[in-house]
């Protein structure tokens, strides 16, 4: 019997990157309460500009890399299963969790907000509560589960756009042209080519905030143009790359250059953004054009650097990495209310910011991984979220095998 380890299509490096991008969300959100200025639920008494640098570095590449890998895996599944099986699987494993977990996650977030309001003296016992917010399609709170909603939009777009080409490509002519175009796109110039349309979207958006790079579409049912362009391009390129697996070696080979460009442009982007400033850049100016170009280049160079480095160094099978990749979906779904509650709990504690950040992150990781092991991995939930349920006996046997 062929195992997951032996299947040639199992791309362990990309699986690790996809899982790592989700797991880094815990650290990303935990860092927000340690910014020098309050932009999050809790304003910790221990702050540092280092927390802002950490957030910026993670946020710059994390979700762009995720959508790059998501596009590649989407094409892989679509080619293997066909459009109908693909659509059923995505509805069950992406739309289903979004619909099922949004409300309990929202309850947890609201609970953390209320606790923080009491702790901060914003709510006086006996006083009437403030009026509840009103939501419509323009500001509906998708929370951190927004990526599931956007993924579904991209899946639908991929199926619709692919259909006419599949009908016309009876002799493989269209496919050959597409593969040639993809090959021409991938090289040392790739981040710069992709950065051009993203920079234009940033430049034209009066609400764009340079510090947050690609706008997070966590509110409203119509994602911001910057998010659609930034994440949509990444998804589309990943989708095309799966047709040309040989290009993965090229991306891995150019990863040192991508990394160097990412470091230089990323530092410059942070400087141009002015640090953790959340005020929109505003109307188009020459300064905004420069900032948009540099930020866009940093976004794609860092995403491709992450992809290439994972292909170079994490392509072998590892039981630990596979476990963390499998758990990452559940960890990301569950983590945000826990992070917010932990931030409120520790905000008045004495201690350096980095120690409290580590404590919040590791504590949330521990809770999420324990619940994953006890409630998800070996139950029908594991089949639902990850496409497989691992029996307890098999889990013990895998744990006894040392990672390579």
Automatic annotation (TrEMBL):
Signal peptide: none annotated. Pfam families: Acyl_transf_3 (PF01757). One of its GO terms (molecular function) is acyltransferase activity. The keyword Transmembrane applies. Residues 12-372 form the Acyltransferase domain. The chain crosses the membrane at residues 21-43, 49-73, 94-115, 146-168, 180-204, 224-241, 253-271, 291-315, 327-347, 353-375. Keywords: Acyltransferase, Membrane, Transferase, Transmembrane, Transmembrane helix. The keyword Transmembrane applies. PANTHER family: BLR4337 PROTEIN (PTHR36927), MDO-LIKE PROTEIN (PTHR36927:SF1). This is Acyltransferase family protein. It comes from Brevundimonas staleyi.
């Amino acid at each position: 019997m062929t195992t997951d380890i032996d299947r040639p299509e199992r791309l362990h490096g990309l699986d690790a990157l996809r899982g790592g991008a989700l797991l880094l969300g815990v650290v990303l959100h935990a860092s927000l309460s340690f910014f020098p200025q309050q932009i999050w639920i809790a304003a910790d008494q221990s702050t540092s500009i280092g927390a802002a640098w950490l957030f910026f570095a993670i946020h710059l590449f994390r979700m762009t890399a995720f959508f790059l890998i998501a596009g590649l895996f989407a094409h892989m599944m679509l080619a293997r299963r066909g459009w109908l099986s693909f659509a059923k699987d995505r509805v069950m494993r992406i739309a289903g969790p979004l619909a099922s977990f949004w409300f309990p996650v929202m309850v947890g977030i609201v609970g953390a907000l209320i606790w923080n309001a009491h702790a901060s003296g914003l709510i006086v016992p006996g006083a009437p509560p403030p009026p509840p917010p009103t939501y419509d399609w323009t500001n509906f709170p998708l929370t951190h589960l927004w990526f599931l909603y956007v993924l579904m939009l991209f899946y639908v777009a991929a199926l619709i756009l692919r259909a006419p080409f599949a009908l016309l490509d009876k002799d493989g002519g269209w496919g050959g042209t597409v593969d040639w175009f993809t090959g021409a796109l991938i090289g040392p110039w790739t981040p710069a080519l992709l950065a051009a349309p993203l920079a234009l979207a940033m430049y034209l958006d009066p609400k764009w905030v340079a510090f947050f790079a690609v706008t997070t579409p966590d509110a409203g049912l119509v994602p911001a143009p910057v998010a659609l362009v930034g994440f949509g391009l990444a998804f589309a390129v990943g989708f095309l790359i799966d047709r040309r697996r040989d290009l993965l070696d090229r991306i891995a080979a150019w990863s040192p250059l991508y990394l160097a460009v990412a470091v230089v442009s990323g530092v410059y982007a942070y400087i141009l953004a002015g640090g953790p400033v959340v005020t929109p850049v505003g109307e188009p100016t020459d300064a905004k054009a420069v900032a948009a170009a540099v930020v866009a280049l940093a976004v794609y160079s860092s995403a491709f650097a992450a992809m290439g480095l994972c292909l170079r160094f994490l392509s072998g099978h590892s039981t630990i990495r596979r476990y963390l990749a499998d758990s990452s979906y559940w960890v990301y779904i569950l983590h945000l209310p826990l992070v917010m509650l932990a931030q409120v709990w520790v905000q008045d504690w004495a201690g350096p910011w980095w120690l409290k950040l580590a404590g919040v992150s590791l504590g949330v990781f521990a809770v999420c991984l324990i619940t994953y092991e006890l409630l998800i991995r070996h139950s029908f939930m594991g089949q639902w979220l990850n496409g497989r349920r691992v029996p307890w006996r098999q889990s013990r046997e895998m744990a006894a095998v040392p990672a390579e």
